[in-house]
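Reading a protein record of the kind used here takes only a little practice. An example makes this concrete, so a full record is given next.
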Amino acid sequence: SNSSKEMSNFERVSATFKGEPTDRVCIGWLGRKETGLGLPQVTVADVVRDKSGVLLYKGIKSMTERFQPDVIAVTTYTTVEAVAIGTKDKYFADQLPAPVDYVLKSLEDLDRVHIPDPRVDGDLPCIYNALKRVVREFGNSWPISAGTVGPFSVAARIRGLWDISFDIMRRPWFAHDVIDFATEACINIIEGWQSAGATGFASGAGSETCLSPEHFRQFCVPYERRYLSAAKKMGFQ
């Protein structure tokens, strides 16, 4: 069996996803350390707003070399997609940014927003450029992952969780329009990650956990399926 010999990172991750034996437990995402807490005298705000991606890359490099995970996830904060679309965040020295003003205040606002380009919009260039550096240095030995928080979570973070919950109850057609837009935004963002060299992708849950099973079936499942199908077509694992 595979578990008797030392496996490469790629073999270990692949076996884990298939439910096969591994030589040891697979170590995944290292969490908030990647937003600069592995670097001295650098604030989280500095890292996530650095469009060159150098600070994020340095933080990932220091954590990867110290802890030797099996996957490198190039990521920053969980509203980065929404900020690139127009949501305003407050930035902090020692914790992740948090939304203070959602971009979709009215139904008409959906006509004014555009699908973000990960190379130029908001703080997405930080991830895009860090990805290219991380792939160059670690891509031969590590699976490199990058993704988004997923269609419904992006929708909730451009509309606001209370408002999209209200929309689901009172104007479900508009909630569908917002989530449809968010799905296309997620697909466009991961196309950018793939072009920068990412080989794996993630779809993180968050706001979805506030929904009932029936609303989850209606407002999450079809959009997640479309997102996952697009990722597979791009060649993501």
About this structure: The first helix runs from residue 9 to 18. The beta strands are 72-73, 88-90, 98-101, 144-145.
